[in-house]
Structures are given as C-alpha cells and as structure tokens.
Write a structure and sequence with these properties.
The protein is α/β, with parallel strands linked by helices and 257 residues long. The protein is built from nine helices and ten strands. The chain has a domain at 9-92 and 170-255: 3-Layer(aba) Sandwich (Rossmann fold), CATH 3.40.50. The model has no long low-confidence stretch (mean pLDDT 91).
C-alpha cells in the first residue's frame, strides 16, 4: 500500500508533559518528567524494567493519576477530565498491550468487531466489515479473519492486537514493549509495521521499550528514562553519543551480551 511520507509538525504537540511525579508508597517512580509528542512523530521511551515506562503511558491514558504535574493530551488536561470526557479521549488513543490482549474465545474478526460495535453503534454491518478488512490488510493478515488467537504465532497475535487498536482510527498510538518475547525476524517485522501504521493512519506514537533495535528503527526521537527522569533526549545517535556511563551501560547490555 503506497502512502505519502508523513511530516512531523513540530509546532503541534499532541501530548505535553511537564514536571510529572508519581510514587507508590516509598517507591518514587517518576521524578519530574517532561516530554513532548508532536503530530506525526514517533517518540521512543527507553529504559530498564521497573523504571516507570509503563506507568508513564498509564498516566497519559488516564489509567493512573499523577501525584503532581501537567499532562495534556489532544488539548485535554487528563487528570481534570470527568469520566465521560476521559472515555471520549480514550477513543482517540490506541493502546497496544505487551501481550496483545486478544479474547481467546473470539475469532480474529470478532476480536476486531468488538470495540467497533461497542463504541460506534451507528455503523452498518457493511461499514463494520469494511473497517475490519481495512485494518487486517494494513497489518498483512487479511487471510486470518476466521482464525482463533490460539492458531496464530506470537507475531501474528501482536499484529492483530495492533489492528484491533487501529479499528477505532486513533490519533495517538501507545505501544507497550511491542517486540517483547518475539524472535529477531518478527521483531523487525513489527518495527516496520509501527512505521507503516504512522504513514497509513497519520498517527503520533509513544513507544515504550528496552529494545534498542526497536528504538533505532521506529523512533524519530528517543528519550532515555533513568532514575525517574529523562536524562537524555534526541535522535538515537545523539542519545548514545552521550558520555553518561548509565547510558553507555544500557547500550552495552543490549548489544554486547
């Protein structure tokens, strides 16, 4: 599918985070985080397990409330929204879970249909079928419509999970460890799919990962989260040109094993 190259609009931030703090008891996870996501941009948040990457995207989607700070998504200050406004905002945010979060008792078609008919009750059966076919074609699995999740490989389940997120045509995609548990070849396929999604669906994305290959392939910019704050931001090469020993050790752990 040919698409025009998507342009990053640096003058239009779809997510703005300022001075964000979040603790769980004495565990201070986020300690003054600042981040911008521009329209049409893929931002990769890198960090070791337990550094608060997943907490960050849960706050962005309103699943967790910050202790302190400002989080604005598509013009809405998230923690100030009532339940109805928050639900409306979430329809504009696609969340790709680490485990794909498919319903095992449903076919692929039924998994894709579920969020569509639940949130867009006005659609006709024909419109629902067109939407399903469109997202399955986009992720390269048009032939898998009647299969059960158990019949799919890990990479295929990941693709279907992304398709189910895309069916509501979100403006923002949040990817949580998109390549976790996948073999190297499938990882490359998923990384390429993330870039294709941006071009086909005009999304802006935050990609949470500790996989440097994923960061290098998918990230327009990279933010390194260490000790509760972003210690370095820029392109992949700019971040890893740092003399910070913590960043060097993260790189070496990934690429020198």
């Amino acid at each position: 599918m040919e698409t025009a190259k998507h342009i990053i609009d640096r003058d239009c931030a779809v997510i703005t985070i300022r001075d964000l703090y979040k603790s769980f008891g004495n565990n201070h996870v986020l300690k003054g985080v600042n981040l911008n996501l521009c329209k049409g941009e893929n931002v990769v948040v890198l960090g070791r397990s337990g550094t608060g990457k997943s907490v960050l995207i849960k706050i962005i989607s309103g699943l967790l409330k910050p202790d302190k700070g400002y989080v604005n998504v598509l013009g809405n200050e998230v923690d100030k929204l009532d339940n109805k406004a928050l639900q409306d905002l979430r329809l504009k945010i696609g969340f790709s879970f680490q485990n794909s979060a498919l319903y095992d008792s449903m076919t692929v078609r039924e998994n894709l249909e579920f969020p569509l008919v639940r949130n867009m009750k006005h659609l006709s059966r024909k419109e629902v079928n067109i939407s399903i076919d469109r997202v399955l074609t986009a992720v390269g699995l048009a032939q898998s419509k009647e299969q059960m999740p158990a019949e799919l490989s890990g990479g295929q389940r990941k693709r279907i999970g992304i398709a189910r997120t895309l069916i509501l045509t979100p403006e923002i995609m949040l990817y949580d460890e998109p390549t976790a548990g996948l073999d190297p070849i499938t990882c490359i396929e998923i990384n390429n799919l993330i870039n294709q999604v941006k071009e086909m669906f005009n999304t802006s994305s935050i990609i949470i990962t500790h996989d440097l290959t994923c960061a290098k392939i998918t990230g327009d910019s990279v933010a390194m989260l260490l000790d509760g704050t972003f210690v370095k931001e820029g392109t992949f090469d700019e971040v890893f040109a740092s003399n910070d020993e913590r960043i060097k050790s993260f790189y070496n752990y990934n690429f020198i094993k």
